[in-house]
Each structure stands twice: as C-alpha cells, then as structure tokens.
Write a structure and sequence with these properties.
single chain, mainly alpha, 0% strand, globular, Coenzyme Q biosynthesis Coq4
Length: 239
C-alpha cells in the first residue's frame, strides 16, 4: 500500500516504492484504469481539477520524454531542469510584479491573476509519474499554464480555456489537451462555431510555429515587454 497526504490508500504491489514525496506507484493496469476513470469524470465535470490532472499524468506516455529532451536541447530548458524552480505564492514576489510597468509580461501576469481572482497555488502536485525528472516536467507544465493565459490574454472561461488547450496540444503534444476539446459539446452553438473556425486554426498555426513554451525560463522574463516576448517566442494573440 502506498499512502500520500490527504489521499486514499492505493494498492501498488509488494515491490513498489515511491520515487519522490507524494508519488503513488501504479501498475500498468492501474494506470489504464485511472486514465479511463479520470477521463470520464473530467468529461462529466471539467471543473474537477484533480481528475484533469490524473488524466494528464496517466496519458502523458512518451510525450514527457520528448519534452524533456527538447528542454535539454535548450540553454534555458537545461537550466530549468537543473534548478527546478517552482511557481507558487512563496516563490513569487506579487508586490514586486504589481510595480512593473504596464506592457511587461510580469505586469500582464499579475493583472491576469487579479482579474480572474486566482492564485498560483491552485495546481495539483504530480502523483502518478514514476521518473522524478519527468514528474518535474509535468509539474512545470502545470505550474506555467497560467503564464500562457497571460501571454495570450485569455481569461478563465470555457471558450478561452479550450482555445489554449488546442494551442498546448500543438505546441507541447499532451494527449490530455486534445481530449479536453471534447468539452466543446458544452459550449453554446455560437461559441462552438467560433472555437472550431477561429481559435483552433490559430492554435494549430501558432502552436506549431512557436517555440516550445516549456523551454522558457518565465521567472527571468517579468520585466520583458509582452509584445517583444511574443515576437521572440514566435507566437501571437488569438483572433
């Protein structure tokens, strides 16, 4: 039995040992069972962040290895993997971000947090990925997701979130981000039409053209002009 804080006991076999704090080892069968169950729960209620997180981890497969290798090929990405920075209210100086000039990435990010009434502490920790380095890659993606919202000025609501998921699928390749587009059935007809006719084509072009966003050391870009940052990364705002 493996136990994590505030989680149920999960049978993982007599020889399984956690590879890092919070890790829950799974057999192949358990991983598949959790993937199917979390997919059904996430589709039924997209607000279940824990189920969305579990789906992302259990379906990531070789995507994490590919992203880790892309990071290793990038000077910034290598430093991220070496230093393993974390994004939360303890590591960010929120007051300092609010003092940055308008038009900077840091000011856009703090403005997005304030406007959406969210905090950088809302992301689930990784539990089901066995390799500690690959688990960090997933954690990094999870914790920098809100930076992508700020980068493209996309608020937290169904249509912008699905547009961003489409971008992430093209730019990063996580299967979960493609699966998330199934939630489009919940949109109003006009929103659904806009998603497929405007946002998805933007996501396909922008995501494939732009630099892999996991290779960006965002914490060093706070004072950079937002438009300049977009140009450097080869991305642009959605329609």
């Amino acid at each position: 039995l493996a136990q994590t804080r505030n989680r149920r006991f999960i049978h993982t076999g007599p020889h399984s040992q956690p590879a890092y704090p919070g890790h829950v080892p799974l057999t192949a069968f358990q991983n598949a069972f959790l993937a199917v169950g979390s997919a059904l729960m996430a589709l039924a209620d997209p607000r279940r962040g824990d189920m969305v997180a579990a789906l992302g981890e259990t379906t990531a497969g070789s995507t994490l290895t590919r992203l880790r290798d892309i990071m290793l090929d990038s000077p910034e990405g290598r430093r991220i993997l070496k230093e393993r920075p974390r994004i939360n209210s303890k590591t960010l100086n929120m007051d300092k971000l609010r003092e940055l000039p308008d038009g900077t990435f840091g000011r856009a990010y703090i403005g997005w947090l304030d406007g959406c009434r969210v905090t950088p502490d809302s992301r689930e920790p990784v539990h089901y990925i066995s390799d500690p380095e690959l688990a960090y890659v997933m954690q990094r993606y999870r914790e920098t997701h809100d930076f992508y919202h700020a980068l493209f000025s996309l608020r937290v609501s169904a249509l912008p979130e699905l547009a961003l998921k489409a971008f992430e699928f093209t730019n990063l390749g996580f299967p979960m981000t493609a699966f998330a587009l199934g939630a489009a059935v919940r949109l109003k007809p006009a929103q659904r039409e806009r998603l497929w006719k405007e946002y998805v084509p933007w996501a396909m072009r922008c995501g494939s053209h732009g630099r892999c966003l996991l290779t960006v050391y965002w914490e060093e870009r706070w004072a950079q002009d937002l438009k300049e940052l977009q140009m450097e990364l080869g991305v642009w705002n959605p329609p």
